[in-house]
Amino acid sequence: MGAALLHAPAQPPAPDRRQSAADRARVHLALVEATADIRAFIRRHAFCAQKVDDIYQETVTRVLERSQAAHLDNPAAYATQIARTLCRKPGRETPHEPADFDLIASARPSPEDEIHHRRRCDRMMDAIARLPALRRDILLRRRWRGQSRADIARELGISEETVKKHMSRALDALESHVGPDGSEALR
Amino acid sequence: MTAPPVLVTQQTREAATEWALRLEQDAALTAAEAEALAQWLDGSPDRHLVLARRREMLADPAFRRALERAASPARGLHWTRPAFSAAGLAAAAAALIAAAALVLAPGETLPAPEAASHVTTLAETRLITLEDGTTVQMNADTRLTVTYTHDQRHVTLVQGEAAFDVPSDPERPFLVSAPGFDVRVVGTRFNVNTTGAGARVDVHQGQVDVAGHGHQARLSAGAAALIRRGPSGWSLTETAASEVDWRDGWVELDNASLLFLLENLNRYSDRPYRAAPGARTLSVTGRFRVNDPARTLELVSQFFGLNVSDQGDHYTVAAEP
């Protein structure tokens, strides 16, 4: 079983530590599992909202590099540690700490959040309306009706590969029309 | 600035899309899937980021809401608002609406599949240019769809207000359908403002025909039509075109209802202003700044003896006791 493979006890690290494929996979999957938390952490602490993606990318790269040199018991925790360092503005000693009232306020959506959400939603609708008809149809079937790729391909008489392309292009269009969630930019 | 997906190949984005869809399903990854995912991620350092962004898109509440609205064909592209809800209708008036709906039938055809829709949100204005060179300036909180065929240029103003500058083309008339009436032109500049409490068409250049609710009028440059619902039904009144409009930040009213003014202000207010029953029919005349609702209502309240009270999710405007 593959699961056994993934969770096999780590081999005693050789002196030069050659990372096993299984250990590498474990680190990747731990990062995938913790993605939302890591990115939320970066959003809260980054000195600049535009840098979130950069910092995330750099964090992942460094965690993977580090795991080649030493065994990481908890890759997600290590990622947060790296992210904290990267969130510091160059030349600044301490990371930007959000004020406490920010955290309290964010427990409930503020009117600004609601307007932001409404705008975002309207932009999304606009982007969805601009999609070519087939692409929009595929997006709605897959995301709204929850149809599988195979079912959509069969019903529309196209290949699964084409369904995959349309779905991805639809999300590309939405992402470029709406941009990444900029709610942090409002705060 | 970061724009990672620009540099990312289509295949990477497609794979990221599929993995993102898979990861949000309840069922845990099988061991084989987990291995395949790890292998894919290991292929290139940017894949974690592309995947993260895809997952964020799928989880975005605004995305879900937009899909929900796009998926229900009755919403979004057409009469999104119950046409006259703001007026607080009595049962008798409902019959009138039914009659009006019959009159509306010609303008009410669903947009053809190629219809493009344009939306502005609260306090957002936008200039769009259509394929024939027509420019449309959209006021805030406005929704319209554009359907061009070989013999007609058709814009449906689903809600809100827009100013049109239409190049002349006698072979291909330009038609604006709004809730309750149609505006037909050959080529001209004009503004259409539609609210639940009535509508107004101002013509700045050329000539337009306005028809709806059993009335019709031909307006020349400098003229305006007010379409209003009164106790005895709908009326269409001609008046002089306003010198100013929302593009200058103003609305000019001539005996308009308070409701009409409030709907204009609501396009710029995060929380709507609603008129208390006794204040709805109050008629207002003058120029009002539309893009600063709080300040405008302060002045209007002083002048008319009104009270504005904060109700949490909206404000109520009532006559002073």
Helix and strand topology:
The complex is a heterodimer of chains A (about 190) and B (about 325).
Chain A: H1 2-6, H2 21-33, H3 35-45, H4 52-69, H5 75-87, H6 100-105, H7 111-130, H8 133-144, H9 149-156, H10 160-178, H11 183-186
Chain B: H1 4-7, H2 10-23, H3 31-42, H4 47-59, H5 61-71, H6 91-104, E1 116-119, E2 126-129, E3 135-138, E4 143-148, E5 153-165, E6 174-178, E7 181-185, E8 189-195, E9 198-205, E10 207-212, E11 215-220, E12 223-230, E13 233-240, E14 250-257, H7 258-266, E15 273-275, E16 283-289, H8 293-304, E17 306-310, E18 315-319
Parallel strand pairs in B: 5-6, 15-18
Antiparallel strand pairs in B: 1-4, 2-3, 3-5, 4-5, 5-8, 6-7, 7-10, 8-9, 9-12, 10-11, 12-13, 14-16, 17-18
Helix pairs in contact in B: 2-4
General description of the model:
The complex is a heterodimer of chains A (187) and B (321). Chain A has helices at 2-6, 21-33, 35-45, 52-69, 75-87, 100-105, 111-130, 133-144, 149-156, 160-178, 183-186. Chain A is an all-alpha fold and 187 residues long. The longest helix of chain A is centred in the middle third of the chain and has 20 residues, at 111-130. Chain A folds into 2 domains: 17-87; 107-186, Winged helix-like DNA-binding domain superfamily/Winged helix DNA-binding domain (Arc Repressor Mutant, subunit A). Residues 1-15, 93-109 and 182-187 of chain A have low confidence and may be disordered. Chain B has 321 residues and is of the alpha+beta class. In chain B, α2 (10-23) crosses α4 (47-59). The longest helix of chain B is centred in the first third of the chain and has 14 residues, at 10-23. In chain B, strands 1, 2, 3, 4, 5, 6, 7, 8, 9, 10, 11, 12 and 13 form a 13-stranded mixed β-sheet that branches. A 3-stranded mixed β-sheet of chain B has the order 15-18-17, with helices on one face. Chain B contains 8 helices and 18 strands. In chain B, 28% of the residues lie in helices and 35% in strands. In chain B, 40% of the residues are buried. In chain B, a hairpin with a 4-residue loop joins β4 and β5. Chain B has 3 domains: 4-59; 79-242, Jelly Rolls (Sandwich); 249-321, Phage tail protein beta-alpha-beta fold (3-Layer(bab) Sandwich). The N and C termini of chain B lie far apart (57 Å).
